[in-house]
Specification:
It is built from eleven helices and seven strands. The protein is α/β, with parallel strands linked by helices. It has two domains: about 150 residues, Nucleotidyltransferase, domain 5; about 70 residues, no CATH class.
Length: about 260
């Protein structure tokens, strides 16, 4: 089997094959084709639920700092235009939408789980803990949950939606305010650990971040359980996963 990075070709014939694209670019194309609507919220409202919360997390693939989750109950009578997966939005647009969500949503909450806990229970479980904490902080409480890809250990009925932040307005809203909050954390940490370039790479596996880790070693807030990523000298499948969010964001920024 070839060790080349995952890529997608249009044909097997070299004469007719289109140039390969990265996995991140291919995923971005898929996400951009999906429509972010209130379809799932309306289905929940139709069952009698009124406080329908979208739940999402950001920072799962980061090498540094916390994973951050948010829960948002949108106001059915106030439409916030432009909601979509936070990874598909430029930073300036995320900031504007985050402010509108906080102002006009019925309720919103943000929670985080730090790197030490991530190393203890693994990133998947830490993401679930952060999401559950965000839900528990909502006031008024949610009576139905729309969750990006995961099932949570919560009393409320819920629906896990693949690519939820690209198709559900409530999950997209949660994605946006969580992303803005975590990016702000990274800018603040950058002044404490300037050698890692956190303000620009937000803790993800950008080449400059990996180089800094190999030169200086990890800070107290790096995820030690992710050490195989920054210790690897060559490309690897794990590195592709960890870098996915940043790679998608880079493609978005280039297109803006």
């Amino acid at each position: 089997m070839s060790s080349r990075p995952r890529a997608f070709l249009k044909a097997d014939d070299p004469a007719t094959a289109k140039p390969a694209i990265s996995a991140a670019a291919a995923k971005m194309r898929l996400l951009k084709r999906l429509r972010c609507t209130l379809r799932y919220e309306k289905l929940a409202w139709a069952t009698g639920c009124q406080m329908v919360a979208g739940v999402d997390e950001v920072g799962r693939g980061s090498l540094f700092g916390p994973v951050v989750a948010a829960a948002v109950i949108l106001n059915p009578s106030y439409r916030i235009r432009g909601l979509r997966d936070s990874k598909l939005l430029p930073a300036e647009r995320r900031e504007i939408l985050s402010a509108r969500i906080r102002e006009h949503a019925i309720a919103w909450a943000i929670a985080s789980v730090d790197a030490e806990c991530i190393d203890q229970i693994n990133i998947y479980q830490a993401s679930r803990v952060a999401m559950k904490q965000a839900v528990s902080q909502l006031m008024p409480m949610a009576d139905y949950l729309l969750v990006d890809a995961l099932k949570l250990d919560c009393a409320q009925p819920q629906r896990a939606i693949i690519h939820g932040d690209a198709v559900s307005a409530s999950i997209a809203a949660a994605s946006i305010i969580a992303k803005v909050a975590r990016d702000q954390m990274m800018r603040e940490f950058d002044s404490v650990y300037p050698q890692y370039g956190l303000a620009s790479n937000k803790g993800y596996s950008a080449p400059i971040h990996l180089a800094a880790l190999r030169e200086h070693g990890p800070s107290p807030l790096h995820r030690k359980s992710f050490a195989p990523v920054w210790n690897a000298q060559g490309a690897q499948e794990l590195l592709e996963f960890m870098a996915e969010e940043e790679a998608i964001a880079a493609v978005v920024e280039e297109a803006v």
